[in-house]
Amino acid sequence: MPTGSPESFKRRSSGRSTQQLHTLDSYDAAITRALGRVRSLETRYEQERAEAAGLVKELVAHPPERRELMVHNCSRFQTWGVYERLIAESWSRTFAFPEQAESLALLAVQLSAHLDARYGKAAVEDLRARAWAYIGNARRSRADLAGAGEAFRRAHAHLREGTGDPVELAFFLDLAASLLRAQRHFEPAMRLLQRAFKIHLSVGDRHRAGRILICMDIVHHQAGTPEQGIPLLYQAIHLIDPAQEPLLLLCVWHNLADALTEVGRFAEAQKVFLEAHKLYKSVPPGVRNRHRWLAGRIAVGLEREQEGEEHLLAARQGFLADDAAYDVALVSFDLSALYARQGRIQELKQITAEMVPFFSSRQIHREAAAALSYWQHAVDSETAGLDLANRLTAFLKRARYDRDLTFEPPV
Fold this sequence. Notes:
By secondary structure, the protein is mainly α. It has four domains: 47-164; 166-239, Alpha Horseshoe (Serine Threonine Protein Phosphatase 5, Tetratricopeptide repeat), CATH 1.25.40; 264-322; 326-411, no CATH class. The protein is 78% helix and 0% strand. It has 20 helices and no strands. It has helices at residues 6-14, 18-60, 64-73, 80-92, 98-112, 116-119, 121-141, 145-160, 166-182, 186-202, 206-223, 226-237, 246-262, 266-276, 285-301, 305-321, 325-342, 345-360, 366-380, 386-399. Helix 7 runs parallel beside helix 9 and helix 17 packs antiparallel against helix 18. The longest helix has 43 residues, at 18-60.
C-alpha cells in the first residue's frame, strides 16, 4: 500500500504518544488564547475610538497650556483612540487654521509619551511619524519652510523606528512631496509621489492612489507644464471613490477642465466642464466663484465673448466679496485681455483703476505688485495690449507659487 494512503496516515496517527497529542492540544489552546487577545484588543480599540470624540472635544475647549497638563496627568486621555482623533482634528484644520493644526499635532506628540508601554513602541513610532508629518504640512501651509523641513526630518526618523507599514510610508512621502513642491524642487517631489502612488495601488487603495495623481498634477501645474498633468487627471477620475470624499471628484473634473483651458484645448475643456457641472450644485461660495471663472475662460476661448465676460465679471465680484486679492488680480487680467482684444480702452482703464487701489491696501507679493504697477502704467499710456496682458497673467500665476520669482518688464 502506498506510503501516502489514508490507511497509513491512520496508523501513524494512532502510533503517536500521549505526550505528542498533549503538545498538539497545547498548541490549539495557545492559538485560542491568542485569538482571544486579538478580539479583546479590537474591542478595546473600538471602545477607545468611540470615547475619543468626546474626550478630544473636552480637550480643545481648554487653552493650549491646560491641554498639556490634562494629557500628561489624566489617564483617560492617554489612549490610542484619543491620539488618532487628535491628529485627525489636526489634519482637518491644516488649510484653514494651520496654527491650530500644528498645536493639536504637537499635543498628540506629547500624548505619545504615555502610549509606548500599552501599545508597543514600534506602533507608537508610526503615530509619532504621522503627527510630525502633519506638523510639517501645517508649517508649509503658512510658508514656514525651514520649520517644515525640520518637522519632516523628525517624522522620517520616527518612521524608521516604526513597524515598516508601507501605508505610513506613503502618507509621509505624499506630505514630504508637498514641501518639495513649495521649495520648487519639482523632480524630487514627483519621485516621492510616484513611490506613494505605487504603494497605494499595491495595497489595493485605489482612492488614495487617485489622490496622489491629483498631487502630481499640481506639481505639473506649478512647474508650468500643465499639459503633462492632463492624462494623470483622466486616470484619477477612474480611481477616486466619491463616497469617501464627495468633493474630490469635483476637484479632479475642475482641475482637468482648467488644465485643458490653460493649454488652449477649449472644446475638450467645455465637454469636461459640462460633465462636472452637476457636482457644483452644493459647494461653498468660494468654489462657485472658481466655477464661474473657469466657465468664463472657456467661453472666451470658444469665442463666446459676451457670455465669457458675464461669467468673469460675476467671478470677480465674488472674489472681491471674499477679499481674495490674488484671484481678483488674475480674473481682472482675464477681463483686461478680453477688453484689449476688443479695443475697449475705457473699460480697460476702469478695471485697472479699480484693481490697483484694492491691492495697495493689502499685503501682496512684492514682485506681483511690481507687475500690476507696470500694467497700470501701460494702460494709462494706452500701450497695453493683448500680448502684454497674457504675459503678465502668466507671470502672476507663476509668482503665486514662487515667492522668489523676479518680475522683469518686457523689452
